[in-house]
Amino acid sequence: MSEADTQVQPRKQGLTRRQKRAVSRGIQYAVFVAALVALSVTADWDRLQNQFAQADLAKELFPDIITLALRNTVLYTLSGFVFGLALGMVIALMRLSPVGPYRWLAGIYIEIFRGLPALLIFIFVGVAVPLAFPGTEIPGGTYGKVALALGLVAAAYMAETIRAGIQAVPKGQMEAARSLGFSHTRAMASIIIPQAFRIVIPPLTNELVLLFKDSSLVLFLGVTLEERELAKFGRDLASQSANSTPILVAGLCYLLVTVPLGFVVRRLEAKAGEATK
Questions:
Q1: CB 146 within 8 A of CB 104
Q2: Who has the most CB within 10 Å: 30, 76, 126, 167?
Q3: Residues with Cβ < 8 Å from 236, sequence gap 6 or more?
Q4: 149-170 as b/e: b if 16+ CB within 10 A
């Protein structure tokens, strides 16, 4: 056998997986940069600035957009969150109840209020309730109506979140509590529910962010100038000035709250993930 036959011919090797991933990322970055360049070149920035970024008009919004609109938005959100959390807890316990009618009622409520748009709930609270109960006033005026509307929507989602948190608590916790002489109710209130809330804090905080944005639907309840929230405030000022700068500023005010809350949600989820390891 000749020496040439004994030599092993080198095999042609392609790109490794790491190299392929690097090439793929490079292509994605290149496409992203190209899209940004195309957008910056083709957009009419002067018209956008005239319509959305009038500095003088933006200054006129302060301090009312903070002291009035943002304040009302926060109050509406917190009132809806508190009512929704209380109602959601009741619905979650009904969902877990051994009594059949309680479970059925809770299931029907969750399916209905998770399936209906929040806008319809606001219209129902603002129009249907006064028609169904003439002369009856919801306590708290506009704040009470918003708390009811937002709470009815939020409770359906919170109930499922709380139920999942309760079921995530190891069954041994209840068994240990009962062996120590705790009643079922006392064990739930003292041991199970506190542990469940530690589990569900991240999704509940995320629900708070969603409610903060849904509070913009308060305009369908008919509010006074002093009861306007961010979206209504920006819309009214945009109509008066024939310019969209107030809407942009209102959107930035939303971000002042939702971005920090989103960061809190991510931190809580990270801590919850570390605790489960």
A1: no
A2: 76
A3: 228, 246
A4: bbbbbbbbbbbbbbbebbeebe
Chain centroid, CA 270 distance in Å: 18
Gap between the Cα atoms of 132 and 209, Å rounded: 32
Structure tokens at 86: 């209380």
State the amino acid at position 233 in one-letter form.
F
Confidence of residue 8 (pLDDT cuts 50, 70, 90): low
Nearest Cα residue to 72 out of 151, 120, 142, 138: 142
> Alpha helices, DSSP H only, in the chain?
3-6, 17-42, 45-52, 55-60, 64, 71-95, 100-115, 118-123, 129-132, 141-168, 171-179, 184-187, 193-214, 230-241, 245-276
- Within the chain, what is the greatest distance between any pair of CA atoms? 109
pLDDT band for position 277 (50/70/90)? low
Classified as helix, coil or strand, 242 is: coil
* Segment 199-223, tens digit of pLDDT: 898 889 889 999 999 999 988 888 8
- What is the Cα–Cα distance from 153 to 208, expressed in whole angstroms? 12
Backbone angles phi, psi at 223, to 5 degrees: -115, 155
Let me know: does 206 contact 130? Beta carbons within 8 Å.
Answer: no
Question: How far is the C-alpha of 66 from the C-alpha of 72, rounded, in Å?
Answer: 9
pLDDT above 90 as % of the chain? 44
Q: What is the mean pLDDT of the chain?
A: 87
What CA–CA distance (Å, rounded) separates 194 from 92?
A: 14
User: Which pair of structure tokens corresponds to residue 162?
Assistant: 């709380």
Of the candidates 181, 190, 234, 266, the residue with the CA atom closest to the CA atom of residue 52:
234
